[in-house]
Amino acid sequence: MRRKRLGGQSPLGHAIEASPPIHGHGGSILIAMPFDPTNSHDVIVASHSGPLFGEVVVPGAKNSVLKLMAATLLADGTYRLTNVPVIDDVDIMADLLEALGLRITKIAAPRGEVGQHLEIVNSGAIRPVAPFELADRIRASVNVVGPLLGRFGEIDIALPGGDDFGGRPIDMHLRGLEAMGAVFDVTSDGIVGRCQRLRGADIEFDFPSVGATENMLMASVVAEGTTTLRNAAREPEIVDLCEMLKKMGCRIEGVGTSNLVIHGVLPSTLQSVTHCVVTDRVQAATYVAAVAMCGGSIRIERAVAEHMGMMLSRFTDMGISFQIDPAGIVATAPQRLSSIDVATLPYPGVATDYKPLVVAMLSIAQGVGIVTENLYPGRFRYVEELRKLGADISIDGHHAVVRGVDHLRGASVVAPDIRAGAALVVAGLAAQGMTEISDVFHIDRGYDDIVGRLAGLGASVTRIRPEN
């Protein structure tokens, strides 16, 4: 089998120039341009907090559940997802999937559980055309492309929205599908594409893209023949997707490694399943950052230390101590954090989603730390917001040089994206005075009641809705 090497992104994730239009046979994947969401005027008010104590239970991962929801397009039946976070992105994804023809019911989690359950019914009556106003609002909308093209051979969908922090091209998604037989027509309005049944291919990614790996997985499980994905991403959330697909009857080898071998099956042979969403490792790290900046000792229930290995190691270098058991971790803050140098890398390296938290922590650490962003060099917009709190940070290309100060001071700041917004909330808890964080709709997209969970640890934080 001839190997197809996929580009579309530099080895460090930089955007490249879009490929020329590829004219097909009049099919139908439609991807258009996004707009900025403005769906909430709430603000989070964080005040200087003393040491944090107690226990926080972390729900399922946003970066997993959205792809698991998309996977239910592959086969008819009734699915149940448990440990689902109560976040806006789940609601938006549910709206998108319902527009495609699924029926989704949200069920409160039983006593002793967190989050919610989703019951997803796929009756087979799928219309692979998604309204622009839905697909535009969420990055994960691109993940319906693989399963819908794989099963139905056509799809119309807007260009995925979500956070905007630099080049996040989908070239590798589309080129991977082209290697399997899909044909696309790229126009000024978007991308149109279709296929007959996809065919297995030997594909090598230039860069281990999480989204492209997920899309190719969901396309190849129902393709004809065998697909090999080389240099695939291997994040815990991808393993979670593979485990659900295998429960459904998909044939996947090499789970957890960078080389995946998928033997395609007919969609009619797959079955619906019940699946528990893997814990959100970034939310877990957020509460580590909170106790590290405020002081104290907290237990983070359901945190999976194995999934946070490199980040926990770097947290330890900063002076945080951990006690780890199968049910969670206990994080204890030092008297003062120590500065470190850290660089973002694909898993098992330090994920880019951790970086805003690390920069916030370094802002009050002893010494000077350098944070290098290798994946999304434009993801430093939140630095100006931290500077409003008194942080001493300078940007040099894709490096942030952070000189620790004795204390931060409260100010009004704006959350530019999900993880940066959470980092600003945590920084506000450590700042003297009061910090007001606006544009919290970003935080709502990825955090399940961050205010309530922090308040439960003793943090001085509340959410308000301005009268005007």
TrEMBL record:
Q: Which GO terms describe its molecular function?
A: UDP-N-acetylglucosamine 1-carboxyvinyltransferase activity
Q: Which UniProt keywords apply?
A: Cell cycle, Cell division, Cell shape, Cell wall biogenesis/degradation, Cytoplasm, Peptidoglycan synthesis, Transferase
Q: Which GO terms describe its cellular component?
A: cytoplasm
GO terms, biological process: cell division; cell wall organization; peptidoglycan biosynthetic process; regulation of cell shape; UDP-N-acetylgalactosamine biosynthetic process
Cell division among keywords: yes
Kindly name one Pfam family recorded for this protein: EPSP_synthase
- This enzyme's EC code(s): 2.5.1.7
For this protein, the record's Gene3D superfamilies field holds: Enolpyruvate transferase domain
What residues does the Enolpyruvate transferase domain cover?
A: 49-453
> Any idea where this protein resides?
Cytoplasm
Primary residence = cytoplasm
The annotated pathway is: Cell wall biogenesis; peptidoglycan biosynthesis
Does RNA-binding appear among the keywords?
no
Please name the InterPro entries in this protein's record.
Enolpyruvate_Tfrase_dom (IPR001986), Enolpyruvate_Tfrase_sf (IPR036968), MurA_subfamily (IPR050068), RNA3'P_cycl/enolpyr_Trfase_a/b (IPR013792), UDP_GlcNAc_COvinyl_MurA (IPR005750)
Q: Where is this region: Disordered?
A: 1-20
Q: Which CDD domains match?
A: UdpNAET (cd01555)
Catalysed reaction equations from the record: phosphoenolpyruvate + UDP-N-acetyl-alpha-D-glucosamine = UDP-N-acetyl-3-O-(1-carboxyvinyl)-alpha-D-glucosamine + phosphate
Which family is this sequence assigned to?
Belongs to the EPSP synthase family. MurA subfamily.
**NCBIfam families this protein is in?**
murA, PRK09369.1
Q: What is this protein called?
A: UDP-N-acetylglucosamine 1-carboxyvinyltransferase
Organism (species): freshwater metagenome
The organism that produces this protein has a lineage beginning with: unclassified sequences, metagenomes, ecological metagenomes
